[in-house]
């Protein structure tokens, strides 16, 4: 799972301008935009540790609208095993695929913008919820779902959930990412 600098410098697919395409994130009603954040650590496919570049404030971010397989054996891993019928050891491998994808597109040191919906700011564990906008203008949340490394999830509501569910369906149909190996995770 080593970071490969050549894979992080990928071109934007199909010549579309991600800034134009992802303008929707900057127009979410009742949201707060925070700039100058830096990724310190990628915890798994749906969680990051970040710090503010100037104030050095640190926090843990949980990505809105999605769920990625776990990368450690845990209570949630056991729950996912029961729900999906997939052995925990296999779910762990899928979690590592998701983690590796995030490390390729958003490695530690990446400068990001965080967008938070003010009416839904934290998860059950009091982690900050956010959309993560990459330097390219692309949204990490959307990339994970579109490329099949996370699934759309209503566990933590976000206003773009219907769009994420559509992207998730398309990823499943295209057998993208983890869907190349299984239909449900």
TrEMBL record:
Superkingdom of origin: Bacteria
Region (Disordered): 1-20
Domain TNase-like, residue spans: 39-181
Gene3D superfamilies: 2.40.50.90
Entry-linked Pfam families: SNase
Compositional bias of kind Polar residues: 1-10
InterPro entries linked: SNase_OB-fold_sf, Staphylococal_nuclease_OB-fold
Compositionally biased tracts (Basic and acidic residues): 11-20
Protein name: Thermonuclease family protein
Organism ancestry: Bacteria, Pseudomonadati, Bacteroidota, Flavobacteriia, Flavobacteriales
């Amino acid at each position: 799972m080593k970071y490969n600098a050549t894979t992080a410098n990928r071109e934007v697919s199909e010549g579309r301008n991600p800034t134009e395409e992802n303008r929707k994130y900057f127009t979410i009603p009742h949201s707060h935009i925070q700039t100058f954040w830096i990724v310190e650590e990628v915890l798994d496919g749906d969680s990051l540790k970040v710090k503010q570049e100037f104030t050095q404030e640190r926090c843990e971010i949980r990505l809105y609208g999605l769920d990625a397989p776990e990368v450690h054996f845990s209570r949630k891993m056991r729950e996912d095993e029961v729900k999906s019928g997939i052995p925990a050891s296999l779910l762990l491998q899928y979690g590592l695929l998701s983690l590796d994808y995030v490390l390729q597109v958003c490695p530690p040191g990446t400068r990001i913008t965080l967008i938070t919906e003010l009416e839904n700011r934290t998860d059950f564990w009091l982690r900050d919820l956010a959309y993560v906008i990459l330097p390219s203008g692309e949204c990490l949340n959307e990339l994970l779902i579109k490329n099949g490394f996370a699934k759309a999830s209503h566990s933590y509501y976000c206003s773009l959930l219907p769009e994420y569910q559509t992207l998730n369906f398309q990823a499943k149909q295209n057998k993208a990412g983890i869907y190349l190996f299984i239909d449900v995770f």
